[in-house]
């Protein structure tokens, strides 16, 4: 069973921690009696939009973190939304997931979007497909965001065989920034390169200078921090990012301990970690 199936129900996540919870069955709304309409929960849901780097390690990391999230009042949803047919079809699949799991019944919906997730999500928000959206935290990277184009240019057959048209759509589509004025926005910026970017360093450099300052991502934001990890590590070590993510969900700001200083120097000239 995938993590999306495991945690698609907020009730299942809550029962892991709160055995005596009064929540009803999977995917069902709450109601005082059958003749009355469902009562909208007074709570929070976090929708994590994974990307091309998501695998078993990332799934295990989210699975193990879900009970802690639930104990803090945040229900976790991780949809399997990326299709091989392109960004438009992936966006439609994500919208179906949102409707099928009735995420509009939450008072507040929050999103953590990995790179492909941002390209998929933002057009939905712009047409008000998520009316209860309260905050979006983006995973951004001046390094890893070059990976789709590198793969499309240098590994065309392998990239198509593994990811289909969606990777090629992502490679050629400019970032569609979120402009919804009522949604709080944060950026979590990866500061180190993956082995893929190191392997294709020349192709990565050909796309221009690496700019880490928050304003370089062409996305308005309420707060911005830097993570001492690369894209693959963020999936595996998501629990390390959760305290800051949770702080933003609750307050609209990261904590005072967050690193808000952009890294300096050439990221690909730094020694590889041991």
User: What fraction of the residues are assigned to beta strands by DSSP?
Assistant: 5-15%
The helix content, as a percent range, equals 25-40%
Number of helices: 12
Radius of gyration: 19 Å
Q: Report how far the terminal alpha carbons are from each other.
A: 34 Å
CATH architecture identity: 3-Layer(aba) Sandwich
Quick check: average pLDDT?
87
CATH topology: Rossmann fold
Strand order of the biggest β-sheet: 2-1-3-4-5-6
Shape: globular
Order of helices and strands: HHEHEHEHEHHHEHHEHH
| Structural class by SSE content | alpha/beta
How would you summarize this macromolecular structure in one to three sentences?
The chain has 274 residues and is an alpha/beta fold. It is built from twelve helices and six strands.
Q: What report would you give on this structure?
A:
Residues 1-36 have low confidence and may be disordered. The chain is of the alpha/beta class and 274 residues long. The chain has twelve helices and six strands. It has helices spanning 3-7, 10-17, 56-71, 87-100, 115-126, 147-154, 156-163, 165-172, 195-199, 201-205, 231-236, 238-251, and strands spanning 44-49, 74-77, 108-113, 133-140, 184-190, 223-227. A six-stranded parallel sheet has the order 2-1-3-4-5-6, with helices on both faces. It starts with a helix and ends in a 23-residue tail after the last helix. The protein has one domain (3-25, 41-251): Alpha/Beta hydrolase fold, catalytic domain (Rossmann fold, 3-Layer(aba) Sandwich), CATH 3.40.50.
């Amino acid at each position: 069973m995938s993590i999306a199936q495991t945690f698609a129900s907020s009730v299942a996540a809550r029962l892991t921690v709160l055995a005596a919870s009064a929540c009803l069955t999977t995917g069902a709304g709450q109601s005082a009696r059958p003749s009355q309409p469902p009562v909208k929960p007074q709570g929070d849901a976090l929708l994590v939009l994974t990307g091309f780097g998501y695998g078993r390690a990332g799934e295990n990391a989210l699975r193990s973190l879900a009970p802690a999230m639930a104990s803090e009042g945040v229900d976790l949803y991780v949809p399997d939304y990326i299709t091989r047919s392109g960004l438009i079809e992936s966006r439609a699949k994500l919208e179906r997931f949102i409707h099928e799991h009735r995420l509009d019944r939450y008072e507040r919906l929050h999103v953590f979007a990995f790179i492909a997730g941002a390209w998929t999500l933002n057009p939905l928000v712009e047409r008000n497909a998520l009316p209860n959206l309260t905050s979006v935290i983006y995973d951004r990277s001046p390094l890893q965001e070059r990976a789709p184009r590198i793969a499309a240019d240098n590994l065309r057959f392998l990239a198509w065989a593994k990811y289909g048209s969606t990777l090629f759509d992502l490679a050629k589509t400019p970032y569609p920034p979120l402009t919804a004025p009522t949604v709080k926005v944060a950026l979590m910026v990866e500061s180190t390169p993956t082995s893929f970017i190191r392997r294709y360093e020349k192709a990565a450099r050909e796309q221009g200078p690496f700019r880490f300052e928050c304003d370089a991502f062409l996305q308005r934001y309420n707060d911005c921090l830097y993570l001492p990890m690369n894209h693959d590590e963020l999936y595996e070590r998501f629990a390390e990012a959760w305290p800051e993510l949770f702080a933003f969900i609750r307050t609209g700001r990261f904590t005072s301990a967050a690193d808000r200083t952009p890294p300096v120097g050439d990221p690909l000239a730094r020694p590889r970690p041991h």
